[in-house]
Specification:
238 residues; alpha/beta; seven-stranded parallel beta sheet; three-stranded antiparallel beta sheet; globular; binds 2-amino-2-deoxy-6-O-phosphono-alpha-D-glucopyranose
Length: 238
Amino acid sequence: MHATNIHIFDDSGQAAAAAGDALIACAQASGARPIGLATGQTMTPLYDHLLKIENQENSLFASTVFSQLDEIIGRPSPVASFAHELTTSLFSNFRTAPAGFLMIDGQAGDPAGEAVRHCHAIRKAGGLAMQLLGIGVNGHVGFNEPGSTDDSRCRIIDLAASTIQRNGYDVGMQGITLGIADIRAAEQIILVATGAAKAAAIGAMVNGPKTPDCPASLLRDHPDIRLFLDNEAASHIC
Ligand code: GLP
């Protein structure tokens, strides 16, 4: 990766705000092409930043279609879904609703069919103008766990033991995720990582071999990928 695409900040709040500003700029320029959102703790300060700006500038996302990166399959309560989290913590707090939200239904009776439907919905909407990503401690992006290849598409995936443990999921939990090929098809990629726990994964992504063992490494030659990191997450970059 070119060093100019790696933005390193003194603290996680600054990294989140800068990534949020980059997302806003892309949303403003992309018309109705979808902007892909991620979930996870890393995104909380970034979404707080989007909310702050949206509340100051009415109708900021009135023309924006958002889309979902990944989802847990078959959680007992739909209230625990990523789609619900994005709707309640972000969209419902906007002063003006976004133009649309392409969501994944983790309760769908046919999860494999739901994955294919989601992929088609994004393509029909013009393809991703941008995909926002976090990173797992094992180098996963979305739920593309180690072993995911660069031609992988939106699909059902078995979650890695470390993901299950870190997120407090039940053993055997599965997810639906955009594949590496779907993420690479986005015109822009913005990846945000903060905290020392992500340092090894970011080091492997940037400096390690390009390998399915670190799925994030399969993104690094994307023509328009930017990393927004705090000092701790950047500490293993050579
Ligand atoms: C989760 C999600 C990813 C997220 C990542 C990091 O399992 N599937 O989309 O980016 O892991 O999460 P966090 O920011 O909570 O560390």
